[in-house]
# Entry
Amino acid sequence: MSVLLKPGADDLELIGYYLGKILLGLGLLQLIPVIIALFAREWNSATAFVIGASLCLIVGAVSDAKLATRRPLTWAHGMVIVALAWLIGPLFAAVPMYLSGRFSHPLAALFEGMSALTTTGMSVIHDLDHTPISEDLYRHLLQFAGGQGIVIVVLSLFAAGGARIATLYVSEARDERILPNFIRTARFIFLVAGTFMALGTLALFIALWAVGFSPTRAIYHAINLFFSSFDTGGFSVMQSSIIYYHSFSVEIIVMLLMIAGTLSFGLHFALWNRNPREVLRHLEARTLAVTSTLFFLGVTYGLLRAGTYDSTDALVRKGLFTLVSAASSSGHQVNVGETYLTDWGVLAPAAIVGAMAIGGMASSTAGGIKAIRIGIAFKTLVHDIRRVLLPESALVVSSYHAGRRQILRADTSRAATSVLLLFAFTHLFGAVVGLLYGDYDITQTLFESVSVGSNIGISIGVVSPDMPHGLMATYTAMMWLGRLEYVAVFALLGYLFSLARGRAAT
# Structure
C-alpha cells in the first residue's frame, strides 16, 4: 500500500505560483473589454473591468514575485493546479460580471463565469438583448479562453518549460500530444483557432451583411458567433440565439464551425498535413459518425411521427442543426426551449439527450462523455463476447486506431467505463436535485441536467435568472466536474484529504 504524504509548504507555494500565472492571464484578457468599453463610452462597464483586471493582476503579480520557483511539477501538482484553476478562474471572472449589475446574486455571476469558461453556454444574465458591447464581448472571450483551455492559454503566453507544462496539459482533460513539445502543441492549437477565426468570421460577416446587417453590426455579431460556435460555447448576443438571424446561410456556417470545434486537435493536425485517412481510421471519428447518424434518424423519425415538421428544409434547419449543436456541445438553439417539451414528441428529444450525453471528441473544445469512451466501451463489449465464444485457450487481442494502432487494455477499458458511469451518475443526481424543488418534471430536469453536466448549453427552460439558488449551485458544480472529467477533481479531493489528515492511503 502506498501513502500520499501531507503536502508541505513548498508544494503549496508551487501550486500558488502556477495559479498566479492563471490569474495574470485572466487579468490580461479582462483588459480587452476595458479598451472596448472606453471606445464605446460604456463607463460603468469600463469601471467594472478595471476593478476585475486589477484584482487578477495584483494577486497574480504578488504570487509570481513571492512564490517563484523552478521546482518541477509532479502529476499530483498538475492535477491539483488544474482543478483549482477551473474554480478560481470562474470566481475571478465573475467579479466584473457581478459589478455590472446584470446579475441578481453573486452566485449567478459565478454561474455565468463557470458557464463561459467551461463553454457550457447556459446564461442567467438579465436583459441580454441590451447588454453593453464590452460585457457581451467579455462573455464570448471567456468561451474562447475556456475552449482552448485556460491553462494552455496562459502557458502559451508565459511559456514556462515544456516538461513542466506536460502535467498541466494532460490534467486539463487533453490527452493528445500533437507535437513533441507541449508549448508547440499549445501554439498549434492557437494556429488552428486563429485560422478558423479569420475564415469563419469573414464568412459570417458576409452572410450577415447579405441579410441587412450594417457592416459594424455584422462584424460584431460575426466575431461573437465565431467564439460561441468554434469553441462550442453557445453564448448568444441576443436572447433568441440563432433564431434571431433568420438566415439559412448563417445556420450553415455556424454548423460547419460547430463541427470543426468538435474535432480533436489531433485530427485537425492530420487534416492540416493533408492526411484525411487518419480521420477515416480514427475510432473516435467513426464512433461519432455512427452515433450521430443514428441520433439523426431518431430525431427525424420522431419529428415526422409527432407531426412537428414535414419538410426537408425544416428537418435540416431545426432537427439537424439542433443535433449538431447537441453533439458538438455548442448549445446554439433554433427553437424556443419549451418546444422540445411541447412540440417534439418523445423520441426526438430523447435522441437529443443521447447526443448531449456523448458530446464530441476528446482533446477538442467539446464537452460530454466523449466519443472515444463510447467507442472503447463498445470495443470492450465486443472483446468480451469474443472471449466467451472462442475456446478458453484462444488468445483474444483487440485493438483500435487513435493516432496509431493501440491495443485495448484492461486499464483503458476500466477508465473509459468509470468516467462514463460517473457522467451518468452526475446527470441523474442533477435531475433528482431539480425534482426536489417541485417545479419541474423528470423530462425537464433530466434534459437540463444532461445539458449542464455535459457542458452542452441547450436549455429546455429550467435555467433562468430566477432559478433556485440551490439548483444554480448544483449546476455550477456539475459544469466544473464535466469540464475536468472528474480525474483532476478526485486528485484535488485526495490532496485536501491528505493535507487535513497528514497522510492518506491510496
User: Anything to note?
Assistant: The mean pLDDT is 86.
